[in-house]
Amino acid sequence: MDYLFEGFIDSESYTVRLLSKEDISQVQQLQELVVETLTEKKNLQPLTYEELNYILTGNGLMIGAFTETGLIAFRALLIPPIDEEHLGLDVGLDAEELPRVIYQEISNVHPDYRGNRLQQTLAHLIMQEQAKLDQKFTYVACTVAPFNIPSLKDKFKQGMEIAALKVKYVDQLRYVFIKRLDGDGGGEEISEIARVPMGDVEGQQALLDEGWRGISMEEDDGGYRVLYVRRQPLS
Asked: How far is CA 197 from CA 124, 171, 219, in A?
């Protein structure tokens, strides 16, 4: 079997490989376990069997980490349909750019294996695999619930930026993250910085509407602030 990675957590070995339709039941079981342990269930939008099957039949990528006991973590990328809910529209991309956007979908880690940087390891590996796809992508996008701190940290560590904050999935408030994959988009420098409490939805939306981007977060008196920047072309 072709492994993407082999490593150790404490003294336990694990391997990472691409997932297929045969792995759906294990993915569903792990997803259910993760949802059960969440204090804020609305922070995670679980994938249905149909959505998992859609990804695993040529519409994305999914990789998983396994120990001897089974699946302990997985991460998914989705090639999304072009529709009115497309995240590219939320962040102001032109219609012709939408086919070049791939989504970072769900990422789950077994509760017993959290704190071992598995999310980051899988993020690095799946983006490497993405680069090998026949279809080429310029952007990676995703949504994250405010106060879903582990997932927010994960996205910021990957260099993704908040470009919108709006209601998605009918009634769920979400940050919309975006990142260019081709390294272009430089030639700008930060001209202004603002730190906004994560709970101040209208304040963040006002900045985002003016073209600011959220680039990191920090703890502040028991709460969290998001660091927003405005950029201007290099003089």
From this structure: 29, 22, 10
